[in-house]
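Rotation project, supervised by the postdoc (A.L.). Task for the rotation student: set up a whole-complex structure prediction and record inputs and outputs verbatim in this book. Inputs entered:
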Amino acid sequence: MELETIRSYDWGIMAPELIILGAATILSLADLLMPKKASRRYLAIFAFLGVACALVALFMQLDNGVISILADTYRFDSFSKAFKLLFLIGTGLILLLAFDDRKGERDEYRGEFYYLLLTALLGAMMMASSADMITLFVGLELLSLSSYIMAGLRKRDRQSNEAAFKYVVNGGISTAITLFGMSYIFGLTGETNLYAIQNALGDPTILQNQFLLVFAFLITFVGLSFKIATVPFQMWAPDVYHGAPIPVTAFLSVVSKAAGFVIMIRFLLVTFIAAPGVAEKPLLQEVQPYLAILAGASMIIGNLIALRQRNIKRMFAYSSIAQAGYILVPFAVISGLMFEAVWFYLLAYLFMNIGVFAIIQLVTAKSGSTDISSFAGLYRRSPWIAVCMTIFVLSLAGFPATAGFIGKFGIFMSALSTGAHYWLAGIMIATTVVSYFYYFNVIGQMFFRSEEEAGKVSIPGGVLTVTAVCVISTLVLGILPHTALEFFYNQFDLSQFFTPTK
Amino acid sequence: MMQYAWLIPLMPLLSFILLLLLGKKLKEASAYVGIWLTAVPLVMSFIVFFGQWGGESYKAEGTWLTIGHAVITFGIEINPLNSLMLVIVSLVSFLVHLYSKGYMNGDERVPVFFAYLGLFTFAMLGLVMSPNLLQLYMFWELVGLGSFLLIGYYYFKPEARQAAKKAFIMTRIGDVGLFIGMILLFWQVGSFEFDDIFKAVASHEMTHAMITLTAILIFVGAIGKSGQLPLHTWLPDAMEGPTPVSALIHAATMVAAGVYLVATMYPLFAASTAALTTVAVVGGVTAIFAASIGLMQKDIKRVLAYSTVSQLGYMMLALGSGGYVAGVFHLTTHAFFKALLFLAAGSVIHAVHTQDIEKMGGLYRKLKRTGPLFLIGALAISGFPLLSGFFSKDQILAATYEDGRFGLFWLAIIAAFFTAFYMFRLFFMVFTGEFRGAAKEVHESPGVMTFPMIVLGILAVLAGYVNTSWFGTFLSDYLGKGEVAPLASNHEPIWISVVATLVSLLGIFMAYLIYKKGSLSRDWLSRHLPSLSSVVYNKYYIDEVYHAVIVRGVRAFSYGWSLIDRYIVEGIVNGAVALVHWLAKLGSKCQNGQVQTYGAVAFVGLVLLLLIFAVSGGYFS
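Outputs recorded:
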C-alpha cells in the first residue's frame, strides 16, 4: 500500500483510542520505574484523566459522519460512537471505585490493574469501531486477555486465583467456538470485511450451503454469548464474579458485557442481514426462536438461582445473567426499536449496576464478609447509603421512576412490536416478579433488620462520586428519560450501520 | 385554579423529602410538617372539586419521551371522577395524619412514619390525576412501595416483615396483567392516553376479542390491588401495619385504586359484556366469600380487613353490572365509614393494647366518644336506614338486579346479612358486656385522635345524601357530566330497599341475640317483643335453633370458605412458590464449581441447538 494512501486517512478520528493507548503505555512505564514501596494508588487519577480526555475527544467527534480507515478495519460511525460513550463512562466510574478499593492495604499490583483496565477498555472500543472480522477478533481478545489477568490480580487470594483460572479456561473454550464459527463464515465467503460478507451472503449461490450458514450463525452466537454471560455460556459468571476483586467484577458485569452485546450486534446483524435461511424465510427470522429461547432461559436461570444466594456478589452475578437475558430480547426479536432499547438499557444498567457494586464494595469492606447479612440494619447505620442502594436495586428490578423501568419498558415495547412474541414478553414479566423476591431481600436486610454490627459506614471521596453520579443518573433517566433518548436520536443515525462505506 | 392543580400531589412529596432530610432534628415536630403539607392539598382539592362542578374537564400535559414514533406524554387531568377521588384521598390522608399525631405518640421513629405517609399520599394523588395509563401505572407501583414500607413499619416483628413482602409481591402479580394489558392497548391504539383509547374503542378500531382481552388483563391488576379473589390474601396480613395506615391505605385509598382503575377505564369495560361479567362475578363472589370469613375472626382488625375485601367486591359487582355511579358512590361512602371504623378500632387498641376481641368488652362506658362513633360506622356499613352505606349499597343491589344478574343479586343480599352480623358481633363483643381484658386503666384517646373520627362520623352519616332518589342525585349528575360515565337509572324497585333493610336489621338482631343477650335479663324478648316471643315459644329452643342453624351453619359455611382459602387458594400460591424454589435449588446444584461442567454445559447447549435446528430444519430428511 502506498504511503500516500495511508497518510490520506483521517487518523485523528482514532483520537479516543490513541489517548487510551498512550495512557496505558505511560502507566505501565511509570509502574515499572516507580520505587517499589511507593504507593500506586494515585496512578488511578492519571488513568481517570486519560479516560476523561478520551471522552472529550469522542464528544468533539460526534458530528462526523462515517469515517473508515484501512478498509473498515477501523470504522467510525453512529454505532461505534454511541457504544464507545458507554464504555468510557463505565470505565471512568470503575477507576474511581478502584481508587478507593482496599486503600489502606499495601498492594504492589495496583499499578498493573490500572493499565490493564485501560487495555481492556481499548479492546472494547475496538470491538465497537471495527467492521472487519480480524480487528473485531483482536479487540475481543485484547479485552479478554486483560480481563483474565485482572480477575486474578490478587495473587495471594485463593478465590481470586480460582476465578482467574476458571475464567481463562472457559474463555479459551469460547474463543475456540467463536473462531470455529467465524472460520465457516470466512470459508463460505472468502471475505473478512463485514459488508463484503453481507454482500456475499446475499448472493443466491450461497443457497447450496444454507445449513452450514445457519450453523455458522449459531456457533458464533454461542461463542460470543460467553462475554455477555447468557445461556449456555453463563456458568462461569457466578464463580468469577465472586472471586474477582469488586472493581473487576463491576467491569466484567458492565463494560465487558456491553462490549459483548456490541460485537454480537455489529458482527451478526451486519453480516447476516440479507442471508437466506433454510426455509423460505430469511436467516435472521429463522433463528429468532432459538435466540428467544436462549434469552428466556437466561432470564429464568439467572433469576431463579439468584433466589438461593446468600452471598451478595453471587446474587448480583446471577442478577446480571438475568439482565443480559432481558437485553437479548430486542436482539432476538430484531425489532425496529432494537438499537435504542439496547443502548438505553445498557446505559441504565451501567449506572445502576456500578452503583450497586460501589455500595457492595463499601459495605463488605467494612464488615469483611460478602454475606448478605453485612447489609443488616444499614438504614440505621448509614441511611443515605441504604437509600442509594434501594434506588439501585429498585432500578434493577424495573421499578417506575428509575432508569431500569424505562429500560425494561423499552425492551418490552420492542418485544411486542414485532408481533407474536407474547411468550417471551410473558417470561420477562414473570421472571421480573421473581426477581423482586431477591432484590427485596436486600432492601429487607437494610430496612427491616437490626444491625448485627454497629458503626457507620464511612464513604471515601471516589466511591462517593461514583454513588452520587449513579444515583442521579438512575433517577434522571427514570424521570426524564427523553434527555438521553433525544441525545440518542439526534446524534446517532443508525442507517449508517447497515450500509457499507462509500 | 386548575392550572395549579399539579401542586396538589407535590405537597406531600415535599413533606416526604423534608422529613427524610430533617426528620432527625424535628423529631416529634415532624407530625406538624406532615399535617400542614396535607392540609394545603386538602383545601386545594376542595377548590378543584367545586370548580369542576360547573367547569369543563381540564388537561395539561407535555412530551415525556418518544419511543420510535410514538409520543408519550406526562401531565395531569381533572375530571369529575378524579376530582372526587382527590377530595377523598386528601381528606382521609389529612385526617389520618392528624390521628397519627396522637396514635404514634412516643414512637421514636415518628419522622420516618410521617415521611412514608407523605410518600404514599403523593403517589396516591398522582395516581388519580394521571391522564394516561403509563403514568397511572408508574404511580400505581409507587403506591405499592408506600404500602410496603408502611406495612413493614414495625420491622422488628417478623410477621410485619412477611406481610410487607407478601403485600408487595402479591399485588405485583396482578400488575403483570395490568402491564401486559397496557402495552397491548398501546400497540392497538398507538397511545396510552385514556381519551385516545376510548375513541379507538368507540370507533371499533379494536376487535371485540382484543377489547375483552385487554379489559380483563387490566382487571387482573385491579384484582391484585383491591384484594379480590384469588389475590386477596395479602390484605388481611397487611393489618400488621400501624392502624392509621390500615385506615388510610387498606381501607379508603389504595385498595380502592383497583375500583378506580376499572371506573376510569369504564368505556373499555363497557364495550365488552364478557369483561363486565368477569368483573361482576369476581366482585360478587369476593363479597360473600370475604364476608363469610369475617364472621369468625377474633382479631378486630382482621374482621375489618375481610370486611374491606367484601365491600370492594361490592363495588366491583356494581361496576360489572353497569352501575358505574353506584360503584363510585359506594367507594366514596365506604372510604368514610371504613376509615372511621379503622380509626375507632385503633382508638380501642390504643386503650386496651390488644387486638383480640375476646379480651375486650364493656368498653362503651369507658370510651365515651369512640363507642358511639364505632356504632355509627357499624350502622353505616350494615346498611342501617338513612345512613350513608344504606343508600350506596341499595344502589348496588338495584344495579345488579336491573342488569339481570339474579344469582349475584341474592349472593349480595346474603353478604349484606353477613356484613351486618359480623359488624355487630364485633360491636357487642368489644363495647358491651363485661371487660375481659387485663389492662387496668382504660382511657379515651386524646382529642387529636377523636376529632378525625368525629369528622368521619359525620360524613359516614351524611355522605349518602349526595345521591338518593328522593333527596337529590348530585353525584350522578356530577359524574354524568364527564363524557365517559353512563348513567345508572334512578327508579329502583322499592322492594329491594325493603329487603336490604330487613336483611341488615336481621343481621344486627341475630348478633344481638347471640353476643349480647346473655348480659340482659332473661325475659327481655318477651318484654320488648311480645308478639315475637309468642311465636318463639321456648328460649332454649330458640337458642338451639340459632345455635344449630345460625351459629353452626354460619360457622360451617365460614369454616368451609376459610378451608378453601387456606388450602386451595393459598395452596396454589404456595405451590407456585415451592416450584420456584425447587427449580432454584436444582439450578444451584448444577453450579458445582467444576470448571469442566461449565464447559460441558456450553458444549451440550451448542450441540443441542444445532441438533434441534438440523432436525426441525429438515437436514436429515
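Student's summary: Chain A touches chain B through 70 residues (CB under 8 Å).
Supervisor addendum: Residues 287-502 of chain A form one domain.
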